[in-house]
Amino acid sequence: MDTNEPSDEDLCRRVAARDESAFDLLVVRYQERAYRIAWSVVRDREEAKDCSQEAFIRLHESAGSFAGQAKFSTWFYRILVNCCLDQARKRKGWRKLIGWGVKDEERGSAQTVEQVGAPFTDPTDAMVREGRMSRLWEAVEELSPQQRAAVLLQCREELSTKEIAEVLHLSEATVRVHLHRAYSALRRLVGEGGAREEP
Amino acid sequence: MSRQPEDEFRDVIDELRRSAPEPPPVHWGAYRAELREKLERRRGRTWAAWTWRPQPIQAVIAAGFVAVLVYIGLPGDSSMPSDPVLMENAVLASRLDVIDHLEMVQKLDVLEDFDVIRNLDKLPGRGEG
User: Are the beta carbons of A53 and B38 separated by less than 8 Å?
Assistant: First the structure.
């Protein structure tokens, strides 16, 4: 980031003082991350858009309550994760949170096409690798909501354990336990899957 | 558990980072426009909720205002009250100047009687009819 550019924290203070241009800047900075995190949790394009936009609206309304002691990103992610969990509870109930319910890929070919990754050079490698990857992420989806959120925030957003603890309102020790259990389960699964794949 | 999970499970984390599914693409201009619209709608709703929320002080002020309007708007010197008796009194009152000349009015009645008296001779007798 350019040193002349205002920090997120400065922008948030300006939003609290009703500076709309500061709000627009924050939206541009965080829109992709917010949408990606929301989609990782709710796994639905429209719901992810709604959740991330709702998080920005709550940010706009409550910017004055940002104390500035935590990082802005941590504070905002907490709002966002709360929005996602609220949304998931409201629309799909706990079934979606635990079992992930109906996902985009089950809804139609248009969305499935959007989600297909770029092809690999070797088709055989690609098949094996893709199989392992999908199993790995399927396994992530079967983790408990807090374990899954912790994994997503660490792997995709590269948050530290301390930041994850602040976002999820948990102690650092609890987050470490969640992550340890989640990664152990995933490693076991990948190992078992890999062994089955071998001829 | 002294080691951090990210050190102990580096291989799994790397695999997850490499294979993370990307969300469906979004047009960010449209996204921001939609967000702005939602924000405006929320502001409007908040304002409407605030203005329409029943508040005792507002209700008392409104009631007082209506009372003042009713008082001002009441026909204090109306010439035509709705009660028939009052209306008759009002009509009589409007003709007080005529009643002041009551004698003359009574004489007018006598003049009407004169017409009858003058034509008495022309009236047929009882036996003639």
Answer: yes
